[in-house]
Design a protein that fits this description.
Layout lengths: L1 H19 L2 H7 L11 H15 L4 H12 L8 H16 L3 E11 L2 E11 L3 E2 L23 E2 L4 E9 L5 H9 L8 E5 L7 H10 L4 E5 L2 H4 L21 E2 L36 E5 L1 H9 L21 E13 L2 E11 L4 E11 L11 H19 L6 E8 L2 H4 L1 H9 L1 H7 E6 L4 E2 L11 E2 L2 E2 L4 H8 L10 H13 L7 H4 L11 H6 L4 E3 L2 E2 L12 H8 L4 H19 L7 H19 L9 H26 L6 H16 L18 E3 L5 E3 L1 H8 L3 H31 L3
Parallel strand pairs: 4-8, 5-6, 6-7, 7-9, 12-13, 12-14, 14-18, 15-19
Antiparallel strand pairs: 1-11, 2-3, 2-10, 5-10, 11-13, 16-19, 17-18, 20-21
Helix pairs in contact: 3-19, 4-10, 10-19, 14-19, 20-21, 21-24, 22-24, 23-24
This protein binds zinc ion.
The site of zinc ion (ZN) has 6 residues, from loops.
Length: 732
């Protein structure tokens, strides 16, 4: 204890010297010292000082430089450029002072196009360009290295058949076609990307199940084009030739390398045959611009589609009739190496507790938004944390960072890495903070409130995220917290800002690298990013020009994101007591359960959920009591021994682990979290096993799933109670 106090005194002295130079800045930037969740008052004051130092480092010019480096060339997974960027990241992290910089290699089944074509053979001849137009103002659009249209993991083949328009390609759309006497068996189905977003891999599985011969997905201007506003290069929306590439992998069943489901593709690992991979589509598929889709739609002569199916093109959308096309897709599906870059700053006191930061590196083309905005924010974050370390300031816990590969294909790099280090991560990982797109919106069209801050987090970490946002400044000049409330109010068209408890989205779907950590390893996650008008997703136009002229010309959102990411990371890394709030956690659970009952009109005689409600209430009470006991002691300055705090931290981490069911959810054993999963559309899905059973009206399975949940909640209530009593009993 004495040693610790002396260390602290020295720490404070150094901090004082180091921050004097910044003091004028600090007065302007930092609010008066306020309590921080999980910190003693003394440590909270030190943390505020440290965060002010941290926040003064990120630079808009540097963020722009990083962004240009990462968006200079197309860099899809397995390309030379993406592999060069892995070496670049590793070199930069070494220069920034990060430790244990390591390249992890995974050999995975990859998928890239050799040859694709689409031709209309009747009633008129038309060859689709499958390419995007160049614009003089943006030289990057003239780069011959830009790919044409393709979908990752499309099947290969050559088919000719009649075309049927199936709206968004959801099951109910096929039902409507059938009601109108139209079969899609053996046909080529043309569907549109839909709003709200539904993962294209779900459209592919649905078309495959319906027996279609091939699937074409096009971008209707109603969704992401001229109907929404000005198009590229004059505005954020997609022009007539923009193509939304992407993967159609069934990674909602099992993500990662399709040939190593559930284990890591380290060199020498066992691989299953691609024919046996549950996540590989068997259907041929291609994405189209609306310019390439329009001739197909306007040459149909069959029955008119209903009003809801009409898009924004100046034609009458019909179900089918007269249009025949030939689709050829030849994919190279060879094994390719993917590279995850990993680095850390070892913790000064708790090196075996890890706070992990991550962002993917691979992009469909340039990745101006997705993911290089996130990469630029991450490189500024690692530079800033590296600089603090050079000044002698290490976090108490280890901070790790990863640059993922192949996220766009099947969340592959993060999944393989998570599977490789599963045992260690289950013990050591405090939380994973993911940033995919840091700025997925146009500041130039966002209006006075600016872009929306739209993070999501497991409910236990929501209070910490809200608190941190009060100490970060938004580009509007207000605190990020105020900006967040204002844009949330704008989005909901409400006349009052939402309550703090409703600010954070605590429903978490899939579609990014947090998936393995939350759903497979049971670790808490946070996703951070700004959103707004953005219609060039996965197209060539998602590039440097878009970002520097339309998205975030001042790079102020990039830097704001670096700051909130770093402040949350530092709080988790330096907290005395990990700031998991299980009282708040359970009010979210209660809400999830009520929604499930109401949406599905669950009758108690079919499924008794009363006991689960009671268990959740008990858990909430235990969480609230523990929170108050700890907060009371922390704020009174009571000095708990490091051992005592350590014991409590371990128990808090165990609560999160207890949500895992090693059996997994029915039909998808890789997804083991009892509270969180995603639907096949990537949409969030709470109480996944229970909800899916209820939706299928399988009451027996639903009963079993409810019992599993009751048991897990009960176990955690016991754990919280025993944590509280050992905390209160042992005052030293
Ligand atoms: Zn992404």
């Amino acid at each position: 204890m004495q040693f610790r106090l002396r260390t602290l005194a020295v720490f404070f002295f150094c901090l004082l010297i180091l921050t004097l130079a910044h003091s004028a800045q600090l007065k302007k930037d930092t609010p008066p010292s306020t309590p921080i969740l999980g910190f003693t008052p003394l440590h909270a004051a030190a943390e505020h000082q440290l965060e002010s130092q941290f926040q003064s480092i990120p630079s808009r010019d540097k963020a722009r430089e990083w962004h240009r480096t990462f968006t200079a060339e197309p860099h899809p997974a397995a390309s030379d450029r993406n592999n060069q960027l892995a070496d670049f990241v590793a070199d930069e992290w070494r220069k920034q002072g990060w430790e244990d910089v390591t390249l992890r290699r995974y050999d995975v089944l990859h998928s890239r196009p050799r040859n694709v074509s689409l031709e209309m053979t009747a009633p008129v001849q038309f060859t689709a360009s499958l390419r995007e137009d160049a614009y003089d103002v943006d030289p990057d659009t003239k780069n011959p290295a830009v790919s044409g249209s393709y979908f990752g993991y499309s099947a290969s083949g050559d088919v000719a058949a009649e075309v049927v328009y199936a709206h968004s390609g959801n099951p109910e759309d096929y039902d409507l076609l059938q009601k109108n006497g139209i079969s899609t068996k053996g046909k080529i189905v043309l569907v549109r990307y839909s709003n709200p977003y539904s993962y294209r891999g779900f459209k592919a599985l649905t078309a495959e199940r319906e027996g279609a011969a091939a699937l074409l997905i096009y971008s209707d201007p109603a969704e992401d084009g001229a109907t929404r506003g000005k198009v590229f290069p004059d505005g954020p929306w997609g022009p007539e030739s923009h193509i939304q590439r992407g993967a159609i992998t069934y990674d909602y069943i099992v993500p990662g390398d399709p040939t190593t489901p559930g284990w890591a593709s380290v060199p020498g690992a066992k691989h299953i045959a691609p024919e046996d991979a549950r996540s590989l589509p068997k259907i041929i598929a291609l994405p189209l611009s609306w310019r390439d889709a329009k001739p197909l739609l306007e040459n149909m002569n069959g029955p008119e589609a209903p009003k809801e199916w009409q898009g924004a093109l100046p034609i009458t959308y019909r179900f089918t009739g007269a249009v025949k096309v030939q689709v050829k897709v030849d994919m190279d599906t060879s094994m390719q190496p993917y590279t995850v870059v990993e680095a850390r700053i070892r913790g000064s006191e708790l090196p075996d507790e890890w706070v992990l930061l991550g962002n993917h590196r691979d992009a469909w083309v340039y990745g101006g938004v997705d993911p290089s905005s996130g990469t630029a924010s991450m490189m500024e974050l690692t530079r800033s944390l590296g600089e603090l370390k050079q000044r002698g300031i290490r976090p108490r816990r280890t901070v790790m960072v990863c640059s993922w590969d192949g996220e766009e294909y099947a969340l592959t790099g993060s999944t393989e890495w998570g599977e490789q280090f599963a045992d260690e991560l289950k013990k050591k990982l405090v939380a994973y903070l993911n940033v995919d797109e840091s700025v997925a919106g146009a500041a130039t069209t966002a209006g006075p409130e600016g872009l929306s801050f739209s993070p999501s987090a497991v409910a236990s970490l929501a209070p910490t995220l809200v608190q941190a946002s009060k100490d970060v400044r938004a580009p509007s000049g207000k605190s990020l917290y105020e900006a967040w409330r204002a844009t949330a109010m704008r989005a909901s068209k409400a006349s009052n800002p939402p309550l703090d408890s409703a600010l954070v989205e605590t429903r978490i779907g899939s579609g990014s690298d947090h998936t393995v950590f939350l759903n497979h390893l049971g670790r808490p996650v946070i996703n951070l990013g700004f959103t707004g008008d953005y219609g060039v997703y996965h197209s060539m136009y998602d590039d440097y020009y878009w970002m520097t002229h339309i998205g975030d010309p001042a790079f102020e959102y990039h830097v704001a994101l670096t700051r909130i990411w770093g402040v949350v990371a530092l709080r988790l890394a330096n907290a005395d007591i990990l700031p998991f709030d299980f009282g708040f956690n359970t009010s979210a659970l209660e809400q999830f359960l009520r929604e499930l009952e109401q949406k599905n009109k669950v009758e108690p005689k079919r499924l008794a959920l009363k006991r689960l409600h009671v268990r959740i209430a008990e858990f909430e009470k235990a969480g609230g009591l523990l929170r108050s006991a700890v907060a009371r002691d922390l704020s009174s300055g009571t000095r708990a021994s490091p051992e005592k705090m350590q014991r409590l931290n371990e128990q808090l981490l165990q609560v999160e682990s207890n949500w895992l069911d090693p059996g997994g959810i029915p039909g998808r054993p890789w997804f083991q979290h009892l509270l969180y999963s995603s639907r096949y559309t990537y949409a969030h899905l709470e109480f996944p096993g229970l909800t899916e059973a209820v939706e299928k009206q399988d009451w027996k399975l639903a009963g079993q799933q409810a019992a599993l949940l009751e048991k897990a909640v009960e176990k955690n209530t016991r754990l919280l109670k025993s944590a509280q009593s050992s905390w209160e009993k042992n005052e030293q």
